[in-house]
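Lab notebook, design round three. We kept the backbone fixed and only want residue identities now. Task for the bench partner: fill in a sequence for the structure below.
Input structure tokens:
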């Protein structure tokens, strides 16, 4: 069972709603995702590079904005299409 990132001792975490994550595909024939970008709610950079070089549909990983080094954990069902995320340490 995935641990709820909101359950932290003496800590209140802000939820960021409707954060856009964009996938970049290798080519239209294979349709493999090779990189992801985020419209980062912390630094305000649109289409900022992330450390996620894979399809986020299959992973429940933490995604890091490479512009400001903020790390996000997914709270909604999917990273793509306006995700609800929380800032993690």
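Proposed sequence:
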């Amino acid at each position: 069972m995935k641990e709820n990132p909101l359950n932290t001792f003496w800590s209140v975490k802000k939820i960021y709603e409707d954060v856009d994550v964009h996938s970049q595909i290798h080519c239209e024939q294979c349709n493999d995702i090779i990189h992801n970008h985020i419209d980062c709610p912390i630094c305000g950079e649109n289409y900022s590079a992330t450390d996620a070089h894979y399809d986020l549909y299959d992973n429940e990983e933490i995604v890091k904005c490479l512009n400001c080094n903020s790390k996000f954990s997914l709270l909604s069902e999917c990273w793509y299409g306006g995700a609800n995320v929380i800032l993690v340490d």
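Keep this in mind before ordering anything: The radius of gyration is 13 Å.
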